Amino acid sequence: MNDKFKAEACQLYIQQEIDSRLADGKTPGKLAEEIVKEVETLFEATVKHATIKKRAQRRKAKSPSKNRDKSGHNRDKSGQIVIRDAVLIGTLRDISKTTGMDINTIIALGVESYKNTYL
User: Fold this and answer.
1) Per-residue pLDDT averaged across 65-89, rounded?
2) Torsion angle, CA of 25/27/30/33, rounded to 10 degrees?
């Protein structure tokens, strides 16, 4: 097998295994141990445990939250919608000050407006 294709296949395998095992609830450290052994066996290549663990930690941080409501919003333990975009948060606060409505109401109105306009 060409070294370039072998490296690409190995990278793809690692990424798919990270995603799959994170979905199964494995920790980044545990899945890194397993994947390092498999890569050595399948691809006859050496990969650092720390590299796989860091990739898994980054993927886990980016993965969607399990705290989504029916409309797809992330919610914290108190039920408030979690917004991670600083620009969006600032805009929502400005609208809230201007209208006197709370942010959750503004979001709900926006979702309904979108549904009525585009769906």
Assistant:
1) 63
2) 100
